[in-house]
Amino acid sequence: MLQKSSRPKSNVINATGDLAIRAAQQATTTIPILAFTDDMLESKFVSSLAKPGGNTTGVSIFATELDGKRLEILIEAVPGLRRPRRSG
Asked: For residue 13, how many other CB atoms are within 10 A of its CB?
């Protein structure tokens, strides 16, 4: 849990995982929060990946919005790949 102390103010908070991100968001609305979690949108930490709003931004590991870009990179990286199949 984040607590106030006599230490100097932070310039940014680095939070990994849903609990740490939520605690940071509850602790401040002014210090920027750099968050790392599975899905920033699903967890409602940000309003969108393009324009997160508020003081929280970061990385969504499972951002499905990036699937198209990942496919483009795969096709570019594997010469001759014509029709990749999705598993799962």
From this structure: 20
> In degrees to the nearest 10, what's the CA dihedral of 23, 27, 31, 37?
10
Using CA atoms, how far apart are residues 49 and 11, in angstroms rounded to an integer?
A: 22
Would you kindly state where each structural domain of the chain is located, as residue ranges?
13-77
Which superfamily does CATH assign the domain made up of 13-77 to? Answer: Response regulator (3.40.50.2300)
- What tens digit of pLDDT does each residue of 27-80 get? 999 999 999 998 898 899 999 888 888 999 988 887 667 777 777 887 888 877
pTM of the model as a whole: 0.62
